[in-house]
Structure formats: structure tokens, C-alpha cells
């Protein structure tokens, strides 16, 4: 009997060790949106990934734009596409279900009413952030201070003022940079692509030129204790992003929508370039999940299947770097005590 008990105990140990080895680890998604079903305008599809950047023929008096938008967002011809949700409740509940199913902790950014509603449903999974694309619509500094004191402000994110033509160094953002430095919370700022053609159909002030990561330099000089993650990693300005990261070691690159919506032949070499250049401890995973909850799963699947990147590097990208950057270890992996 005792021999059988030993055998069973040994088997149990082996099985749990194997299960542990096989079980996918936890993930920190640095970038999901907590807002409403109409957060990205009318119902639309997202391609994961987008096969090509289609050409737009503006046509006479711009008559070609609707056909372009249908081909890109309304009914795109791509092998894998997902349709947007139809209600706020559906967006919140399905996104949270996806997070739980994949063992994801997510920095959820938006305005306070949405963020608080989402947080009420999943305080164990969501890391609350505040962000918007219009400086004037960000909550007043005092309100943010109160949220921080109440444990409801993990980051200022996403600051997507690029959609309104506002540069990082714009005076309207200065008090938020100063606040983030004072409260010691990181800031996620959108510096990269938006939906193709967005200047013509949704955000007339969006400027691609504001994707240049070096535009952050004056802010970092003025606020030396500020911690920043650059959303969409300044794509496609890889060299300028690396120049910024080399000069300012507190800056991290977050890959956002690139990991779900960009082609394998583009995103993995882009990510790998940062690893090869020595920045593997400062790359952050995010999905930019907006109104397509499936993207939570898609991003993780794509990263886990990505070529040329080792399992150890994927571990850093998917969890460890974010835990160190945010100074939290929600899955209790012990990574913080190992980090120097
Ligand atoms: Zn975003």
C-alpha cells in the first residue's frame, strides 16, 4: 500500500510539474479601452491582421471615400475579421470574459464613468487608468489626485491627443505631465498610426508627423522622474524610438495594435529589432482592444506563435516587463523580487 501511495504521490508531483510547465503564464495587457460600444464610431470590422493598406482613389469630389471605408472597415476582405459589439454592456462583459479566459490583467483606460463601471465588474483583473484624446476633456487634476489616493489610478493612459493634432509638448498637457511625475504614475501616450485615412473621416486634426517619438524629448527633460510608455512604439519610426529609449532609460515601448492588426511580416521584425538592439527588458505587450473583444485572445495567440522570439523573451514581453514597469505583480509570480 505504501509503495502505491509513494507511486501516486510521485505521479501527482510529475503531473503538476508538467501542468505547470505547460500552463500558459499570466499576461499584462498594457492597453485596453474602457468605453462604450460607439467608441470607434459606427459598427465595423477589424482585420486581425490587416492584409494590405489599400489604396484610396478620392474620386470626384471625394466620392471614393465611402467605398474605401466599406472596403477597410465596413466589409473588409480579410481572412480573419471580427465585428464590433452592439452595446456597452456587451463590450464590458465580453472583454472581461476574454481577460479571465486568458489569465490577463489589463490596464483599462478611459474616462471615469466608464472605467469605474468596468472596475466594479472586475476589480481583480482591471488596472484603472484615465485617458482621452482631447486635453480639455481629461478630468481636472484634483479629481485625478483623489482617484490616485483611492487606488483608482494606475496610469494616465491613453493620452491620444495625436488625434487632435496636439503634440506631447503642447502647453495644454503640461499639468498632466507634472501631475504624473508628482504622483509617480506612468503615462501612456499614443505615438503611431491610427485607422488609415482617419484624417478624412473621423479626426481631421490627426497628424502622422506627431508619431515621431523624439517629440517627447522636451517633456522628458522637464520631468526627469516621469515614466512613459510610448503606445504603438512610435511605429514606424523604429530608429527614433530607439534613440529616445537609449537616451532616456525610463521610457518603454508598448506595441499596442501592432500585435493584433499588423502583418506577421511587419510586426515581428519590428519587435525583434528592439530585442536585437538590447531593449528586451523595455518592450510591453498591449492589444489596444477597443470594440472587438476577441482581440484579447488574438493578440496573445499571435505573440505565442511568433517566430524568431524566444519563450523567455515572450515572457518578458507578455508579463515581466509590465510588472516591473508598473511595480505590481498581480499574478504573484515573484518577478518583482527578482528584478533589480
Ligand atoms: Zn488605444
Describe the structure.
- The model is unreliable at 10-20 (pLDDT under 50).
- The strands form two sheets. The protein has an eight-stranded parallel beta sheet, with helices on both faces.
- It has 340 residues and is an alpha/beta fold.
- It contains 14 helices and ten strands.
- Helix 4 (112-121) links the parallel strand 4 and strand 5.
- It starts with a helix and ends with a helix.
- The chain has helices at residues 2-22, 65-74, 88-101, 112-121, 141-149, 174-183, 198-201, 217-222, 238-247, 258-261, 264-276, 295-304, 311-326, 335-338, and strands at residues 27-33, 45-47, 81-83, 104-110, 126-130, 155-159, 187-190, 228-231, 251-254, 283-284.
- The chain has a single domain (25-41, 86-338), classed as Alpha-Beta Barrel (TIM Barrel), CATH 3.20.20.
- It is globular and about 60 Å long.
Domain count: 1
Bound small molecules, by name, code or SMILES, are:
zinc ion
The CATH architecture comes to Alpha-Beta Barrel
Distance between the termini: 49 Å
The sequence of SSEs as H and E is: HEEHEHEHEHEHEHHEHEHHEHHH
Uncertain runs are 10-20
What class do helices, strands and sheet pairing give? alpha/beta
Rg computed from alpha carbons, rounded to a whole number of angstroms: 21 Å
The fold-level CATH name is TIM Barrel
Mean pLDDT: 93
CATH class: Alpha Beta
Amino acid at each position: 500500500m505504501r509503495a502505491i501511495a509513494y507511486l501516486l504521490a510521485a505521479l501527482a508531483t510529475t503531473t503538476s510539474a508538467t501542468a505547470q510547465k505547460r500552463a500558459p503564464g499570466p499576461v499584462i495587457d498594457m492597453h485596453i479601452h474602457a468605453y462604450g460600444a460607439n467608441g470607434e464610431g459606427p459598427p465595423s470590422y477589424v482585420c486581425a491582421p490587416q492584409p494590405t493598406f489599400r489604396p484610396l482613389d478620392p474620386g470626384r469630389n471625394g466620392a471614393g471615400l465611402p467605398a474605401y471605408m466599406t472596403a477597410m472597415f465596413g466589409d473588409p476582405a480579410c481572412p480573419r475579421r471580427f465585428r464590433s459589439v452592439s452595446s456597452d454592456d456587451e463590450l464590458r462583459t465580453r472583454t472581461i470574459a476574454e481577460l479571465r479566459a486568458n489569465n490577463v490583467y489589463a490596464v483599462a483606460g478611459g474616462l471615469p464613468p466608464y472605467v469605474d463601471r468596468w472596475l466594479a465588474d472586475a476589480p481583480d483583473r482591471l488596472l484603472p487608468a484615465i485617458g482621452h484624446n482631447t486635453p480639455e476633456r481629461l478630468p481636472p487634476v484634483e479629481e485625478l489626485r483623489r482617484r490616485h489616493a483611492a487606488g483608482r489610478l494606475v496610469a494616465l493612459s491613453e493620452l491620444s491627443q495625436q488625434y487632435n493634432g496636439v503634440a506631447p509638448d503642447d502647453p495644454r498637457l503640461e499639468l498632466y505631465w507634472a501631475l504624473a511625475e508628482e504622483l509617480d504614475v506612468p503615462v501612456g501616450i499614443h505615438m503611431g498610426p491610427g485607422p488609415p485615412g482617419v484624417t478624412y473621416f473621423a479626426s481631421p486634426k490627426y497628424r502622422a508627423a506627431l508619431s515621431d517619438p523624439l517629440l517627447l524629448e522636451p517633456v522628458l527633460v522637464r520631468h526627469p522622474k516621469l515614466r512613459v510608455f510610448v503606445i504603438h512604439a512610435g511605429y514606424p519610426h523604429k530608429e527614433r524610438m530607439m534613440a529616445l529609449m537609449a537616451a532616456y532609460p525610463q521610457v518603454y515601448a508598448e506595441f499596442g495594435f501592432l500585435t493584433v492588426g499588423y502583418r506577421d511580416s511587419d510586426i515581428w521584425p519590428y519587435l525583434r529589432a528592439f530585442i536585437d538592439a538590447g531593449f528586451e527588458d523595455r518592450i510591453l505587450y498591449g492589444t489596444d482592444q477597443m470594440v472587438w473583444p476577441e482581440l484579447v485572445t488574438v493578440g496573445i495567440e499571435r505573440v505565442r506563435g511568433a517566430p524568431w522570439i524566444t519563450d523567455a523573451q515572450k515572457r518578458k514581453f507578455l508579463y515581466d516587463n509590465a510588472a516591473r514597469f508598473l511595480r505590481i505583480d498581480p499574478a504573484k509570480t515573484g518577478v518583482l523580487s527578482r528584478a533589480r
